[in-house]
Structure formats: structure tokens, C-alpha cells
TrEMBL record:
Belongs to the peptidase S49 family. The keyword S-adenosyl-L-methionine does not apply. Keywords: Hydrolase, Protease. The gene is sohB. It is an enzyme of class 3 (hydrolase). This is Putative protease SohB. Its EC number is 3.4.21.-. It comes from Yoonia vestfoldensis. Coiled coil: none annotated. GO terms for biological process: proteolysis. Pfam families: Peptidase_S49. GO terms for molecular function: peptidase activity. It comes from the Bacteria.
Length: 304
């Protein structure tokens, strides 16, 4: 587990689909020499270190990889998105006179809970001033779907999946001697039992459930608002049975559309043809790629 993405992230609350995310979590931490392929879509190419590009009046922002609040090492060397990057980019695109509409293309199993709400709110704010189209190609699960649910509409590629709406936490607690024969203990101050809940006790389980349920409630509330679903009906709409606790599943496009979680199933090419035709009928010059690092984002925002 040492020097992996999972060890780097630690035991935190996560909004991630474990089945799709396990491979990413098990990857070794990246190095500066690790090559990252450019992202190309809708007539734009986004190189490593760039967060978005603009082509013919349409801003394109990929949302991919394991999502973290502000991990520069994962963003810079793997091309994975961060919540800070999504928030900054959404603000830049909202303020830009060059941008008439925005595409968020998703390929992510989700990520950490911490910092997620800021990215969700930023995309919701962007969608209030400009059309924001989500392209799920092929995965928007958990935290990634949380963000996608705030877009104006959601298209899923054939074979693509959305959902996994819920929150989880993985952690450990010492219960026996380690390989050296030493047994570790965790000691907390008198009024800090919730600092590191003991999952082997009923009190610890209750505290873990309380914290996860708080995050899930915000998740459900945002999805219901973003997708126009009755909050009282949402848990049954997400359940694979008649019991509302059986949520957290992923859904292919047809099922997702029936449940109100997506709007259409389209190939990637057809999606970009539709969006570009609606907002940019004819090409006008070369696609412009824009590096939106934090410093540049701050400077641009200061001018608006």
C-alpha cells in the first residue's frame, strides 16, 4: 500500500465507486517523467497542465481520474481533475465573453468528499448563466455524478454508466500484534471520541454513520435540485429494490434516463456535433487552448 494513490489519500470519507476506482487507488504515485496523453474533443486539444480549452465559443473541461480537493501531483502528472481546478475553471468560463456554452466530459469513478461541495456549487452557478452539457464518456460515478447532476443536461455514451450515489469510509483499527509482535493503540482525549471513531464499538459505528449520512444528505439534496427530482422520492428512485436503503448502484444509459439521472444516450461524435452546431454553426479560426492554473485563474477573475 505504500507509495500508492490510496496511501497518499489516506482513510477519508469518499464518494467513489469502489469497483471502478480500485485500480486507480492502487496505482503508484506518479513521477515528473510520467507521460500523460493529451485530451482531444470537439475540435480542441488539452495538453498536460491545462484544465480547459475553448473552441468556437464552447468551453470544454474534462473531469477525469480520482477527484481530490487540490492535489497538484495528481493533476499535473496524471491529468486528473481537482475540485479547486473545477471551481476555478467554472468561474473563468462563467465570466468569459468568448464562451457561449460549456461541456464537461466525465471519465471518473468519483473521489474524496472533502472539497466536493465547492465544485458542485461552482458548476451549478455556471449553469445558471450558460448552458452546461455533461458528456459521460464512459463513467460519472459518485462524486463525479454529484458534479454532473448540476449540469443543464447529461448525455451518456453507449455502454457508459452513472450513479453510485452515496458516501463510504474505509479505515483500520489495531486489533492484534503486527508482524513485529507489537500491538498498537489509539488514545483520544476525554472530549474527542469523534476524532477517530473506533469501528469495533457501537459508539464508533454510530459516529461513522452520522458523519457519512450528513454527507449523503447533501449529496441527495444537490442531485434532487440539479435533476429536478422530488427529494422525497429520490431514495426510492435510486434504489434497485423497493427498499430505499438499497441505493448506491450504477446504471447504464437506458436505466439512468428512466430514473431521471440522465437525458440522452449519444455517441461522443454525435454529442459534440450537436453542441457545436447549436452554439457555433461555423468554425472560426483555430481552436484556442487556455492554461488555467490557479495563478492565471486568480488574475483573470480579478479583471472581471
Amino acid at each position: 500500500m505504500r507509495n500508492t494513490i490510496a496511501s497518499y489519500i489516506g482513510a477519508q470519507a469518499m464518494a467513489v465507486d469502489v469497483g471502478f476506482g480500485a485500480g486507480l487507488l492502487g496505482m503508484a504515485l506518479p513521477t515528473a517523467e510520467q507521460p500523460v496523453a493529451a485530451f482531444s474533443a470537439g475540435g480542441v486539444t488539452i495538453q498536460r497542465g491545462e484544465r480547459f480549452a475553448i473552441s468556437r465559443g464552447v468551453g470544454v473541461m474534462p473531469v477525469r481520474g480520482m477527484l481530490t480537493p487540490n492535489s497538484e501531483i495528481l493533476e499535473r502528472y496524471l491529468g486528473w481533475s481537482t475540485y479547486v481546478g473545477i471551481e476555478d475553471t467554472a468561474a473563468l468560463l462563467a465570466a468569459s465573453d468568448e464562451v457561449a456554452a460549456v461541456v464537461l466530459e466525465f471519465d471518473s469513478p468519483g473521489g474524496l468528499v472533502i472539497g466536493m461541495d465547492a465544485a458542485v456549487a461552482a458548476v451549478a452557478a455556471l449553469a445558471k448563466v450558460k448552458p452546461v452539457y455533461a458528456m459521460v464518456n464512459p463513467l460519472a460515478a459518485s462524486a463525479a455524478y454529484h458534479i454532473a447532476s448540476q449540469c443543464t443536461s447529461i448525455a451518456v455514451t453507449p455502454g457508459g454508466v452513472v450513479g453510485s450515489i452515496g458516501v463510504m469510509r474505509a479505515g483500520s483499527w489495531p486489533v492484534q500484534p503486527d508482524m513485529y509482535g507489537e500491538e498498537w493503540s489509539i488514545d483520544l482525549s476525554t472530549h474527542a471520541r469523534a476524532k477517530w471513531p473506533n469501528p469495533t464499538t457501537e459508539a464508533g459505528k454510530r459516529e461513522i454513520a452520522r458523519s457519512l449520512d450528513e454527507s449523503e444528505a447533501r449529496f441527495h439534496s444537490n442531485v434532487a435540485a440539479g435533476r429536478g427530482i422530488d427529494p422525497a422520492a429520490l431514495t426510492l428512485q435510486l434504489s434497485v429494490t423497493d427498499d430505499p436503503v438499497d441505493g448506491g448502484a450504477i446504471f447504464y444509459a437506458d436505466d439512468a434516463i428512466k430514473r431521471g439521472l440522465a437525458d440522452s444516450q449519444e455517441t461522443r461524435a454525435a454529442f459534440y456535433d450537436r453542441v457545436m452546431s447549436a452554439h457555433a454553426p461555423a468554425p472560426k479560426g483555430q481552436a484556442r487552448s487556455a492554461f488555467a492554473a490557479r495563478a492565471a485563474a486568480s488574475a483573470a477573475l480579478a479583471l472581471t
